[in-house]
Amino acid sequence: MGKDKLRKFAEVATFENVIQLDAGKEYKGKWAEKQFGNTNPVVLELACGKGEYTVNLARMFPDKNFIGIDFKGNRIWRGAKTALEDGIKNVAFLRIQIETILEHFGENEIDEIWITFPDPQPQDSREKKRLTGPKFLDRYKIILKPEGMMNLKTDNDGFYAYTLEQIELQNLKKYKETADLYHSELVDNVLSIKTYYEKKYLADDKNINYVKWSFEQC
Fold first, then answer.
1. Which residues participate in substrate binding (predicted)?
2. Binding residues
3. What is the dotted CATH code of the domain comprising 3-217?
4. 183-211 residue pLDDT tens
5. Which of 106, 174, 189, 204 could form a disulfide with 29 if both were Cys (CB 3.0 to 4.6 A apart)?
């Protein structure tokens, strides 16, 4: 590991807005009260990377709490540091493997989940790692409120098609979908937030896919 990564790992451990590994289990069912000191809705960004979506959503919606989740501390460092420097109090980061999400959040605790440009895990042998696979969807359904929403943005057409297939197989209700977000009527201030990776994809003239759904049965 390079010196810069080591520095970021050491620094992120001192950030009051970063909770790591087993420490997050103590917040289960009480994130709003314990981390943010309020009873506002809680929104997650999974595989948040540098946390651009988490931080920018927090700026837009000060009456909601936002938690970015990723396992790589050197990536979380950027978003967490920005939030601290800019005094954004309604944002936090949790460093865990997403597979363990049920150990860190209670039933019906979350209002909304965003998945932004995750690793599509394209190999058939890695289907179980896809963040919109059946086992992950089962986990999200438990922690989401009954009216809670799911959002996916991805440049990967195969992953998008796979996600739509899972939604159809489970007979879930879709609210919005497009295979070319920035040439659609759906784009708004929220969907216009661009992550580090999305900017790279757009520079390569890739289309951006988006779908919003819930666990309500059609």
1. 155, 195-198
2. 45, 70, 119, 155, 195-198
3. 3.40.50.150
4. 999 999 999 999 888 999 999 999 999 99
5. 106
Asked if the model's pLDDT at residue 37 lies above 80, the reply is: yes
Nearest Cα residue to 151 out of 167, 129, 135: 167
Q: What single-letter amino acid sits at 192?
A: S
Q: What percent of the chain has pLDDT over 90?
A: 89
For the annotated catalytic residues, the residue numbers are 119
Residues flagged as binding site for S-adenosyl-L-methionine? 45, 70, 119
Provide the 3-class DSSP secondary structure of residue 180: coil
Phi-psi region of 171 (alpha: psi -120 to 50; beta: other; left: phi over 0): left
Annotated binding site for substrate: 155, 195-198
> Angle formed by the axes of helices 134-143 and 157-169, to 10°?
60
The Cα angle at residue 100 between residues 16 and 155, in degrees rounded to 5: 85
* Predicted TM-score (pTM) of this structure: 0.95
Specify the long-range contacts of residues 55-58, CB closer than 8 Å, at least 24 apart: 55/79, 55/82, 55/83, 55/86, 55/88, 55/91, 56/193, 57/114, 57/190, 57/193, 58/83, 58/88, 58/90, 58/91
